[in-house]
Amino acid sequence: MSYAEKRRHPRLSIFSAAMLVLQDEGFLSEVKDLSQGGARVALPRNWNLPIATQCQLFLIFDQETVIGLRVRVVRVGSDDLGLEFMPDQEERVAAVLYESRFIEQE
Q1: N or C terminus of the chain: which is more exposed, having fewer CB within 10 Å?
Q2: What is the average pLDDT score of the chain?
Q3: Could you cite one Gene Ontology molecular function of this protein (predicted)?
């Protein structure tokens, strides 16, 4: 069974600016895809935090639409991060999925 077949939620390929924030540090990135359970973002420059790090992910859809979610790092790849949305944010996740419909897909 391939990795993609093991997913709990289907992925939607999008391209959106993003920022990961941990305490007083911010890391610019871009969203590559997302699902109801999490997101894959480009590995930010100077990223040196381990798996299980919890932080805020701000998805920047346009100047007026920025949605923040609490996330946990579940995978650190050579050029991307796998992020899991923390529980009890269903309305925010739904808003992110709704807004992503208006973003150009890669």
Answers
A1: N
A2: 90
A3: cyclic-di-GMP binding
